[in-house]
C-alpha cells in the first residue's frame, strides 16, 4: 500500500537585518549563471545600463563595430520590440561605431548617441526608439541621425534627456587642432545651441586639449557639464539661463574642480536632489592611482563627509585605476564603480558606496567584498553604474555583463505552507554553506524513493543524495567529504530512470 506523505516547507520572510542577506546576481536574480547578457564570441566594449520605471535593466554596448541594445523583460534579454534579439543592432551601418552614451525617457524608450568613426566621418550620431522603430530626433526615419555633421572630428558624446524627452548632447570637437567641449539640444524641429538660435555657438569650453565630456540636466533642463581640460584637470560648468558659469554661479573663476596639477581623467557627473553637482574621477599622484570624489555643498567643493577635502581619495593603490562611474541614491549618497588593472594586465570590477560616515561595499559592512567580479578580464571592464529606488546598485560592463545587488537569504521567520503536489523546491540558490540557514542546500517536495545527483559542469559526479521523508540536503561536500570549489554545478532529480527535474546550483565561498 502506497504511503501518502504530506510535505511541509518552511518559507522564510526576508528582513534586511544583516549584511549577508543580499548578493550580486544576474538578471533573473538566481545566481550568476546568466551574467553574460549576449554571447557572440566577438569583441565588445562600452557597456551602459539604465533602469526603467519598473526597475528592470536596459543595456547598450559596442559589439564589434556596431552599437547594440537589449532590455530585461523579467524572463530574458530582448531587443527594443520585445520579441527576441533579432533587432539588437542600432547603428547597423557597416562602419565603425563606438563611444556610446545611453538614456531612457519617461516612457522607458531607449535613446543612444555614439561616434560614427568610419574613416572620413567621425561624427556624433543619435537615434531613439519610438515604439516601433529606431528613428532620428525628428521621429521620421534616420535621415538626420548625424548630429554634428561638420567634418571636424568628434569624440566622447554624453547624452541627456529633458523633461519632454528631447535629447541634449555634449561632446568633444576638434576645430583647427583645438579640442573643446561643444553642446547642442533638439528643440523639436532642429539641433540648436544653448541660446536657441541655430548651432553656431555650440562651443562651451575654452581649456584646450579637452576630452571626456559628461552631461547632466537639472529640473529647468539646463545643462551641467564636466570634462578634462588643459593641464589634465577636471572642469565643471553649468548654464544659469543666460550664461555658462561655475558652481558658485558667479562667472567662471572656479571652473577647475580638481586643480592639483596631477594627471586626471574620466569624470563622472551626477546632480543631487538640489541640483548640486557631484563628480568622481581618476587621478595619478605619481606613485599611486586614485579614485577621487567631490561634491558642491552650495559654497565649496567638499568630500563625502562634507568637511573640506581631506578624504577626497576614496581608494588608492599602486595598481592602475580607471573609468569610475558615479550614481547617487535617493538620499543623495554617492555610489561608485570602477575598474582596476593589476601588474599582470588583468582587470577587476570594484564598487563602493557612502553610508553617511564611511565608504563601504554593497553589504554595508566594511570593504571586504569591494570586488564585485573577481574573474579577471584582459580587455578592460569599463563599468556603468545605476541605482534602483531601494538603493541597490546595478552594474553593466564590457561583455556585455550585468549584475545587480539583490536580497537572497536573511533572518528567517516560520510560516508553514504545504508544497503543491509535483513541485520540487531547491533553495537557497546561490548556496554558501557558511551563510545558508542550517548550513545546507535543501531539496524539498521529492517523491518517495527518488534521489538527487549533483555534477560538475563537465558532468563528473560530485554527490548523490537519497530522499528521506520527501527531502534531501546537501552540505556542499563531495563523496570524499571535501568542500567543493565555488562555481556552477548541475543537479538531476531522478526516480528509477526517469528525470523529474534538472537545474543549476551556484556555489559561493
Describe the protein.
Among the domains are: 8-13 and 419-507, Immunoglobulin-like; 25-59 and 71-86 and 320-407, no CATH class. The protein has no helices and 39 strands. The chain has strands spanning 8-12, 22-25, 44-51, 57-63, 66-72, 77-78, 97-104, 110-116, 123-129, 134-135, 154-161, 167-175, 178-186, 191-192, 211-217, 223-229, 233-239, 244-245, 264-271, 277-284, 289-296, 301-302, 313-317, 320-328, 334-341, 347-354, 359-360, 371-377, 384-387, 393-397, 401-407, 414-418, 425-427, 441-444, 451-456, 461-466, 471-474, 487-495, 498-507.
Q: Give the overall pLDDT as a whole number.
A: 86
The largest sheet, given as strand count, sense and whether it forms a barrel, is: 5 strands, antiparallel
Q: Number of DSSP strands?
A: 39
Oligomer: single chain
* Helix run count: 0
Terminal Cα span: 45 Å
**Low-pLDDT stretches:** 1-20, 409-417
Specify the structural class: mainly beta
Radius of gyration (CA) equals 26 Å
Shape: globular
- Give the fraction of residues assigned to helices: under 10%
State which percent range the strand residues make up. Answer: over 45%
Amino acid at each position: 500500500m502506497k504511503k501518502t506523505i504530506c510535505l511541509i516547507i518552511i518559507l522564510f520572510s526576508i528582513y534586511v537585518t544583516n549584511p549577508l542577506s543580499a548578493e550580486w546576481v544576474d538578471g533573473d536574480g538566481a545566481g550568476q549563471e546568466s551574467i553574460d547578457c549576449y554571447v557572440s564570441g566577438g569583441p565588445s566594449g562600452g557597456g551602459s545600463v539604465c533602469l526603467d520605471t519598473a526597475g528592470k535593466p536596459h543595456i547598450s554596448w559596442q559589439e564589434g563595430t556596431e552599437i547594440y541594445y537589449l532590455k530585461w523583460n523579467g524572463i530574458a534579454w530582448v531587443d527594443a520590440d520585445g520579441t527576441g534579439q533579432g533587432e539588437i543592432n542600432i547603428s547597423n551601418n557597416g562602419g565603425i561605431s563606438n563611444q556610446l552614451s545611453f538614456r531612457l525617457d519617461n516612457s522607458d524608450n531607449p535613446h543612444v548617441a555614439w561616434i560614427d568613426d568610419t574613416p572620413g566621418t567621425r561624427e556624433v550620431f543619435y537615434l531613439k526608439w519610438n515604439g516601433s522603430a529606431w528613428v532620428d530626433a525628428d521621429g521620421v526615419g534616420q535621415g538626420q541621425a548625424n548630429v554634428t555633421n561638420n567634418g571636424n572630428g568628434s569624440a566622447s558624446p554624453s547624452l541627456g534627456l529633458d523633461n519632454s524627452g528631447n535629447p541634449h548632447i555634449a561632446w568633444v570637437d576638434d576645430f583647427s587642432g583645438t579640442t573643446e567641449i561643444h553642446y547642442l539640444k533638439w528643440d523639436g524641429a532642429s539641433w540648436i545651441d544653448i541660446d536657441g538660435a541655430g548651432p553656431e555657438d555650440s562651443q562651451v569650453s575654452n581649456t584646450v586639449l579637452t576630452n571626456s565630456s559628461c552631461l547632466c540636466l537639472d529640473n529647468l533642463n539646463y545643462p551641467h557639464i564636466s570634462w578634462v581640460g588643459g593641464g589634465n584637470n577636471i572642469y565643471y560648468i553649468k548654464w544659469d539661463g543666460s550664461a555658462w558659469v561655475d558652481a558658485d554661479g558667479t562667472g567662471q573663476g572656479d571652473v577647475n574642480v580638481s586643480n592639483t596639477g596631477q594627471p586626471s581623467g574620466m569624470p563622472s557627473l551626477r546632480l543631487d536632489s538640489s541640483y548640486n553637482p557631484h563628480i568622481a574621477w581618476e587621478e595619478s599622484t605619481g606613485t599611486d592611482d586614485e579614485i577621487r570624489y567631490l561634491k558642491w555643498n552650495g559654497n565649496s567643493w567638499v568630500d563625502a563627509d562634507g568637511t573640506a577635502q581631506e578624504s577626497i581619495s576614496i581608494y588608492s593603490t599602486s595598481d592602475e585605476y580607471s573609468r569610475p562611474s558615479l550614481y547617487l541614491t535617493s538620499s543623495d549618497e554617492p555610489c561608485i564603480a570602477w575598474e582596476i588593472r593589476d601588474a599582470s594586465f588583468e582587470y577587476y570590477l570594484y564598487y563602493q558606496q557612502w553610508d553617511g560616515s564611511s565608504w563601504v561595499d554593497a553589504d554595508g559592512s566594511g570593504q571586504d567584498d569591494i570586488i564585485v567580479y573577481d574573474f579577471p578580464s584582459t580587455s578592460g571592464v569599463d563599468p556603468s553604474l545605476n541605482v534602483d529606488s531601494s538603493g541597490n546598485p546595478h552594474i553593466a560592463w564590457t561583455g556585455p555583463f550585468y549584475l545587480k545587488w539583490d536580497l537572497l537569504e536573511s533572518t528567517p521567520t516560520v510560516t508553514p505552507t504545504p508544497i503543491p503536489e509535483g513541485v520540487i523546491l531547491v533553495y537557497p540558490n546561490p548556496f554558501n554553506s557558511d551563510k545558508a540557514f542550517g548550513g545546507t542546500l535543501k531539496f524539498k517536495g521529492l517523491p518517495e524513493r527518488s534521489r538527487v545527483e549533483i555534477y560538475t559542469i563537465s558532468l563528473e559526479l560530485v554527490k548523490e543524495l537519497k530522499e528521506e521523508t520527501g527531502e534531501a540536503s546537501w552540505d556542499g561536500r563531495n563523496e570524499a567529504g571535501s568542500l567543493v570549489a565555488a562555481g556552477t554545478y548541475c543537479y538531476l532529480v531522478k526516480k528509477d530512470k526517469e528525470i523529474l527535474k534538472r537545474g543549476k546550483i551556484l556555489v559561493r565561498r
